[in-house]
UniProtKB/TrEMBL annotation:
Residues 1-70 form the SET domain. It comes from the Eukaryota. This is SET domain-containing protein. It comes from Dreissena polymorpha. GO terms for molecular function: histone H4K20 methyltransferase activity.
């Protein structure tokens, strides 16, 4: 998960191997995707920046939390078929380190 407050500040969290924090449960949704329901903001607490997730609309019970990770080259964002179309059933073979 990446977040840029501006061109100079970039914060990044990789929750791939994290089993202790709820933030790992936020899934990706491209900006503009109707499934996107969260926004990321930097909140400073005691001069320490934290990435915090906020709902940007009402979220239904059992609805996934989804935020634009901000990385257009993620393997599950691969475009198939006609330009501007994509599939929701993409299976990738990604080996995680």
């Amino acid at each position: 998960m990446e977040f840029r407050a501006n061109k100079r500040i970039k914060l990044s969290i990789d929750a791939s191997n994290d089993i202790f924090h709820e933030g790992r449960m936020i899934n990706d949704a491209e900006n503009g995707d109707a499934k996107q329901n969260c926004v990321m903001k930097i909140v400073e607490v005691n001069k320490t920046p934290h990435l915090c997730t906020f709902a940007d609309r009402d979220i239904a019970i059992d609805e996934e939390l989804r935020y634009d990770y901000g990385v257009p080259t993620l393997p599950w964002r691969k475009i198939y078929g006609q330009p501007g179309t994509r599939t929701n059933n993409i299976h990738t073979h990604v080996k995680w380190a």
